[in-house]
Amino acid sequence: MSAPRNDGPIGVFDSGVGGLSVLRHIRALLPHEDLLYIADSGNAPYGDKPPDWIRERSIALAGWLAGRGAKAIVIACNTATAAAAGALRERLALPVIGMEPAVKPAAAATRTGVVGVLATVGTLKSAQFAALLDRFAGGIEVVTQPCPGLVECVERGELDDPATQALVSRYVAPLLARGADTIVLGCTHYPFLRPLIAAAAGPQVALIETGGAVARQLERRLHETVVARHHEMRGRDAFYASGDADLAARVMRRLWADDTPVEPLPASLAQPA
Ligand code: DGL
């Protein structure tokens, strides 16, 4: 017997606009699904916040998405996945798809045997990241680089400003100095800085991100649990933001589409408890 059809949206959240780098893969792979996205921009960055805070906030955001009928939750944030994926899976009777830096494909791709990982402080300090290295980084050298300030550049829409470029160069240089030929973009905000990172790294260095793999995992989980939508209509996108929703809207229109409507998150969720 096939699983029941479910027309609920796919709920996606991130500390801000970075998760749109995942959402674009989801939209490309699943054109008929409705997508409901929260940018928690009023609280970005998550990267230097305590894991307990991120967990509670993620429970609140995912709970709201579930309350709006979401049939699956995507944590479009490496930092929130490390802090909260387990708690969300315990609490929600829905598929919860998280993400982690792409160490496994990077380890398979490197020829120099040195992989660089750009990520937030929170991701790099997490037990999940240590476990990821234990599992997949045997026999290669992994050079990690926390990147304070980069998420804020993306949140402000400063994708190619000289100050952003200088910060990117500062974070990429130590990876190159150690001989990395493969760099993992371990935070969903960083794909929006890809041109700057590629310019700093040079053409011989491969950049790896995780959005495509997350979208494929979501598709698999939808087919295992609730049937994905099959009809001719294009799915709708709905966007919510905390903090300065006008600023978030300006940036999201640049990163997503010119006419992206962005609503403020409801007051009960606008600020964390
Ligand atoms: N975009 C998020 C990630 O993938 C979090 C960035 C942040 O808010 O520090 O890690």
Automatic annotation (TrEMBL):
Substrate binds at residues 14-15, 46-47, 78-79, 188-189. Pathway: Cell wall biogenesis; peptidoglycan biosynthesis. One of its GO terms (biological process) is regulation of cell shape. It catalyses: L-glutamate = D-glutamate. It comes from the Bacteria. Pfam families: Asp_Glu_race. Keywords: Cell shape, Cell wall biogenesis/degradation, Isomerase, Peptidoglycan synthesis. Its EC number is 5.1.1.3. The active site is at 77 (proton donor/acceptor), 187 (proton donor/acceptor). One of its GO terms (molecular function) is glutamate racemase activity. InterPro entries: Asp/Glu/hydantoin_racemase, Asp/Glu_race, Asp/Glu_racemase_AS_1, Asp/Glu_racemase_AS_2, Glu_race. NCBIfam families: glut_race (TIGR00067). Provides the (R)-glutamate required for cell wall biosynthesis. Belongs to the aspartate/glutamate racemases family. This is Glutamate racemase. It comes from Candidatus Methylophosphatis roskildensis.
